[in-house]
Structure formats: C-alpha cells, structure tokens
Write a structure and sequence with these properties.
Blueprint lengths: L2 E7 L14 E2 L2 E2 H10 L5 E6 L3 H8 L6 E3 L7 H12 L9 E6 L6 H14 L3 E6 L2 E2 L3 E4 L3 H5 L7 H6 L5 E4 L13 H10 L4
Parallel strand pairs: 1-4, 1-6, 4-5, 7-10
Antiparallel strand pairs: 2-3, 6-9, 7-8, 7-9
Length: about 200
C-alpha cells in the first residue's frame, strides 16, 4: 500500500505576522520539521504546495525542495492548494497512491500519529480516517486515493476539503491523549502553546 502526503503551505499567514512554514520549530523551520516527521513515518511520497514566499520555503527545505509544487492561485484560498496537490499526484507517469494524508502547515503532527492513521486506514478500509479529540474531528486527515479526482476539483465554492468529505462519514480514531491533533498555529500565542505541547524549547 502506497501512502502520499500533501502538505498545504501556500497561505499568507496574516494572523501569524510571518510565514508559518518558516517559523522556528525545534531549531529549524517548521516546514522542514514537518517533512522530517513525514519521512520518518510510513508515508511513501510527499507533495508540498507552496504559494506565498515560495522561494523562501523551497530554500528552507534544502534538498526537500524537490517535493514542492507551486500554486499560482494560492491567493484564492486553501482549496486551490488542495487541488494543486491532488493534481500533482495524478500527473501522468505517477502511480496513484492508495491513501493521501492531507496536512496543513499550521497543524503539525508527529510520525507516530501519521502511522496510527495509516494502520487504521489499512484495517478499516474506510474512505476517510481522521483523529478525534474530545469528540471532535481533528487532523491530519487520511483519504482513500479514489478521492483524488474530487480533491483535484476542490474549490472555495465547494468548501474545499469539507466539500470532498461531505456525505462521507470519517472513521474517527480516538486520540484524547494527543492534544497536538487539535492544534492550530494561527497566532504567536498558539505557536507558543504548540511548542509546549510538543515538548519543544
């Protein structure tokens, strides 16, 4: 079973005040830390969708810049980045993955959490697998590869990922002992809380 990951890292980060992919995280840019976690998981391939500050993000990734796909429509919303990532995975000559982890750059996760979702995906045969924290859906989300076309057609008008998931009941994996799955790094205050939850300086 092949698993891909699409990391959405194209936004302007207006509430953070600086590009979220580049914020310091355990001694390196956040986006680089996230790629390291994915490489340490059961994920087989990675697509990073860039937009705002794309050149800086690519440079921060070093050799990991090869995973980057630029989304020229990024100012139109996150759904366009989801679509760009899905289209990259559907490109001619590329093997369709059986599962796709969708991760927002401002919602970092660990390799062991990704691996737990992959294992549950294999066992449940569900179209969508998602962590649950205190009864609510959390992140990242793992989708069956058969949904790539729906992801590639996502738009703000169709509510992006929410539109793809509409009518599909996610198989939720309780993770009340993992508050990081509910983390959203939107502001400097949230960033400090995120570092605390991950046990980082």
């Amino acid at each position: 079973m092949t698993i891909a990951a699409v990391v959405l890292a194209a936004g302007a980060s207006s509430r953070m005040g600086c590009p979220k992919p580049l914020v310091p995280w355990d001694g390196r840019p956040l986006i680089l830390w996230e790629v390291e976690q994915l490489l340490g998981s059961g994920v087989d391939e990675i697509v990073i969708v860039t937009g705002c500050k794309a050149d800086e993000v690519r440079r921060a990734l070093g050799s990991g810049g090869r995973y980057c796909v630029f989304n020229p429509r990024w100012p139109q919303g996150r759904a366009t980045s989801l679509a760009a990532g899905a289209r990259a995975l559907l490109a001619p000559g590329r093997n369709r993955p059986e599962g796709v982890v969708v991760q927002n750059v401002d919602q970092p996760t660990r390799a062991d959490i990704v691996d737990r979702l992959i294992e549950e995906f294999r066992l449940s045969h569900a179209e969508v697998v998602q962590p649950a924290y205190q009864g609510h859906g959390a992140h990242p989300v793992l989708l069956d590869g058969i949904l790539l076309e729906a992801m590639a057609n996502a738009s703000e008008a169709t509510l992006g990922l929410h539109g793809v998931l509409e009518g599909r009941k996610p198989y939720r994996v309780p993770m009340d002992d993992q508050p990081v799955v509910a983390l959203d790094l939107n502001t400097p205050t949230a960033l400090a809380e995120g570092r605390r939850l991950f046990g980082l300086p």
